Amino acid sequence: MDGSMPSQHISERPKAVVLLSGGLDSTTTLAIAIEEGFAPYALTFRYGQRHEIEIDKARTIARSFSVGQHMVVDFDLRTFGGSALTGDLVVPKGRSADEMATGIPATYVPARNTIFLSFALAWAEVLGANHIFAGMNAIDYSGYPDCRPEYLAAFERMANLATKAAVEGKQNIQIHTPLIQLSKAEIIRRGLALGVDYSMTNSCYDPDLTTGAACGRCDACLLRLKGFAGNGIADPIAYAE
Amino acid sequence: MDGSMPSQHISERPKAVVLLSGGLDSTTTLAIAIEEGFAPYALTFRYGQRHEIEIDKARTIARSFSVGQHMVVDFDLRTFGGSALTGDLVVPKGRSADEMATGIPATYVPARNTIFLSFALAWAEVLGANHIFAGMNAIDYSGYPDCRPEYLAAFERMANLATKAAVEGKQNIQIHTPLIQLSKAEIIRRGLALGVDYSMTNSCYDPDLTTGAACGRCDACLLRLKGFAGNGIADPIAYAE
């Protein structure tokens, strides 16, 4: 994607709030939302994650895709604790696919997707948007409970009872998770077909804070590398050592 | 309540996250949670509301009730807009009961309770708490969609699919809204019976920022005054003029 947009003007397309973390999955999701004819409004969270690299990446990506607006919402989940992603636990490294498939990893952040989707719902109501796009995936990394289809269906049902716009019949929230049934290799294939430049993205949980290089050994790096290998191509981002 | 606790030690009682705004309803809810034998953990939000008075009140109330912990979470819903409570619209004044009963007021904040309950869910998971108490009320002020029992049931269902603890069978979230079917007069009667000192609370949407005096004319003030009048007693807080 080089910032070019479909010929239809942004104001004529249905609005969609797109959760954008700066990672591979959410960037692909943004490209799919645009390809499906939606006017994207990107939403990023600074929630006390270990590093700011993904927020910088998200800004670059949002600009490159010419989103209607890019909002970065701040709050601090570190005060609650309970996760490796917010610095409380250690990010696991070098795990095998079998190990990743067992149990819910330490990188789980309590209720994170529920909080993210709740803010998306608030913004969707103000924008008059019926659509929320999110890059959840239930195949690779199925450990997270708030990435499962039954959770997402329950959130959608709750959302349509929550807002003034929904109750007044002016809003019908649909949560779109176009990656939910794709493997990492399939996600990358889909994104490449849409022209996504994956050199803009960060997936690493624990990148080098000076160089921005990915660690290559956390679950997110291992899955990403496997996804590129599955397509027979090199990952365009830099890895440490 | 003068800070005295039930004789059972706090660590032996089941933990409950209690949403505490510093208002009459949430303070009564906190007193009820304690009376029902829960160890309360109070959660307050600084979300860009028009004034800080209610946060100061919440701190005083939390201290007075000797809660296990009081957390104030910061984020700014003003960036989304769409509400009189975050400064975007005008707070309506002097409305009749009939006017209040018609439609959803401008003080509605998009998806606010969903965001609040999502943070409560995150904290409940980290605390190992099964219980969330919230002061929603469906009788007086029935305009807010996210105060209705059907919304709350849908949130609870979603919550029990969302967390690692729930999926692992270690958590069964219950949302308690003990005020849901009470009138304002009944809420005050219940609180007074539990020894709640309502002089600690603020309900006003638009208090005098210098004196802290309530305006006496917004919907929240009118309902509160009616509630005290219904008990034949004076509201202990100061009102402007």
CATH-assigned homologous superfamily of chain A: HUPs
CATH class term of chain A: Alpha Beta
Rg of chain A, rounded, reads: 17 Å
Q: Main β-sheet of chain A: number of strands, strand sense, barrel status?
A: 5 strands, parallel
Biggest β-sheet: strands ordered side by side in the sheet of chain A: 3-2-1-4-5
> What share of the residues of chain A lie within helices?
25-40%
Named CATH topology of chain A: Rossmann fold
- Count of alpha/pi helices of chain A: 8
**Beta-strand segment tally of chain A:** 5
Shape label of chain A: globular
Q: So what's the oligomer here?
A: homodimer
What fraction of the residues of chain A are assigned to beta strands by DSSP? 5-15%
The most extensive interface between chains reads: A-B, 44 and 44 residues
Average predicted confidence as pLDDT of chain A: 88
Count of the separate structural domains of chain A: 1
Description:
The structure is a homodimer of 241-residue chains. Chain A is of the alpha/beta class and 241 residues long. A five-stranded parallel beta sheet of chain A has the order 3-2-1-4-5, sandwiched between helices. Chain A has one domain: HUPs (Rossmann fold, 3-Layer(aba) Sandwich), CATH 3.40.50.620. The radius of gyration of chain A is 17 Å and the shape is globular. In chain A, α1 crosses α7 and α7 crosses α8. At the A-B interface, β3, α4, α5 and α6 of A face β3, α4, α5 and α6 of B.
